[in-house]
Amino acid sequence: MNTSTTQHFAGPDLEAIREAHRRISPHIEHTPVMISEALDEMAGAVLYFKCENLQLSGSFKIRGAANAVFSLSEAEAARGVVTHSSGNHGAALALAAKMRGVRAWIVVPRNAPKVKVRAVQAYRGEVIFCEPTLEARETAAAEILRRTGAVMIHPYDDDRIIAGQGTAALELLEEIPDLDVICAPVSGGGLLSGTAIAAKSMRPEILVIGCEPANADDAARSLASGQIEPAATTVTIADGLRATLAPRTFAILRACVDRIALVSEEEIVQAMQLIAEHLRCRVEPSGAVAASAALHRQLGAEGLKIGVILSGGNLDPEAIPTQPGKDLTQRTQRATEESGW
Description:
four-stranded parallel beta sheet; alpha/beta
């Protein structure tokens, strides 16, 4: 059954995102923007890859987690934090909690990728396994809340999380202010919500495009129908993009996102391989989805400047890439030399 959504959520504004950036900057990486002429040629556009796969904890998730944890009062922090997560948010929250010196309980489905479970444990998060259903996750998290009094930090249905995730787009647009398009993957919608708010506030004419697997297309269906649609029952290699939108993120996406682009499983794998070859970066399937949409010309943005958020890199080691990418500064330097400045 479809879930009708009539509530309105304004979400954080640009100043909240800037405040989040000031709060978390001492604790996270300012990730590089990478380029590749070969990938530009494939896309028929100029691509700027924001490499959140190189971020602390291996994904953009540390941005929202750090903003939420460092926003807590001393009394709240002393109680610890809890969340349910398939991996990246859990690892990020565990790391943010470790940074602040507080406990973190992370409810994880039994079928979560081992690399992500190991990351949670490496950051001293206390892992509680549950069955791989949303009901099981929420029930386990509620029991921990009842038992410990910890503060719930939802993976995406939280303005502090959304503001933190929006700092990736903030950094990208401060570095490349004339982007025509910015694209990010969408699952629960926290990253895409923050990206859209930051991008539309800084550059109102920019196109904001969410990207998701065709096998997990609930965001596309939700925006098309005007109400939150249930998750697809099909399987996707992009395991981090299986969550459904919350009323909060759905409202923000309806207001600020121009459209959703869908990519196939084969296209996701191809994008991972191309990024490894040409940028010398390892990205997880979920992290390659936005790049896949650009590289396979699903954005309708040929000839434009496209910002792509590579959202994560947590996967087991694979073949070492053979060709290096170039940092944005090399393109800037080359353009300066050619112009005679």
